[in-house]
């Protein structure tokens, strides 16, 4: 009886890897097209609507860019931890605490000059996010706790803190019957550049900064060594505890900055949807990009085109939210699945030999 065995591939050439990825995209479009046709719609028109709805006009392009900003920044943040094999699943919470810290200054120091206030808000968001991320790093290095569970649980603490502030100390009394935080004053809002808040400039700068940090700095080298083998790192004189806490602080600080930019640039207030699932999507973006900062820029853009395009299709064709999500899921299934086959090959094990598939 034949048995299936997964064998890890050796290094695969870039040309072959991109051929596999292209094939996966084609299969995704074909399968999605079949699904759309079964639902009674023209696949070509639906795909055309997805593209035009996400990048077909200046307005749609700006809306897509606003989705890219927090996703790209958060992906860069979690990548620092993942490169070290520290599973930071707490980006949602780190975004939330970064937004909370920034909101404090936006609400109670709105009389400051805009450029000073925005810098303080950004620093506060990064510091709050970094310290929040350092908590699981400390417990991991001190007591050997599971960072996946701890970072995941801290997400809910941050989320419920926002809800408590909305309903209590920071509730806008002018919003009768609604639990809302007041809108930020103009001095606490990110300025717009080319019709999109300036967070997109911050995101591009961070792509370059994270790339340089990982590839061309001593600290980037140390976290890579720790990720490969902690015993080797200790033998080389690297303080594993110091590297873990430092890297996790930086990772969460970037996520906290994403929270500040989302609250100040896109939402212009604090609400419990400030993270909006970005922290979890960023995990997929990070691994799909193979932890490469420049690759994250491309993958983040593609993800957001797909998300915005799906929303447009849902509206134009009066599709249910579930139908639009199924179409989005089909495309993602093939794209993500191809990455598995770039890492592993499938072999059929039979008596008397091995047959590769």
Please explain how this structure is put together.
With 357 residues, the chain is mainly alpha-helical. It is built from 13 helices and 5 strands. The chain has helices at residues 14-38, 43-55, 58-83, 91-108, 114-143, 147-167, 199-216, 218-228, 230-235, 240-267, 278-288, 293-316, 321-343; strands at residues 3-8, 192-193, 196-197, 344-350, 353-356. The strands form 2 sheets. Strands 1-4-5 form a 3-stranded antiparallel β-sheet. A hairpin with a 2-residue loop joins strand 2 (192-193) and strand 3 (196-197). Helix 1 runs antiparallel to helix 13 (321-343) and helix 4 crosses helix 10 (240-267). The mean pLDDT is 88.
Shape: globular
- The SSE order reads EHHHHHHEEHHHHHHHEE
- Biggest sheet: strands, sense, closure? 3 strands, antiparallel
Compute the average pLDDT: 88
Range of helix content: over 70%
The whole-angstrom Rg is 22 Å
Percentage beta strand: 5-15%
How many separate helices? 13
Q: Between the first and last Cα atoms, what is the distance in angstroms?
A: 16 Å
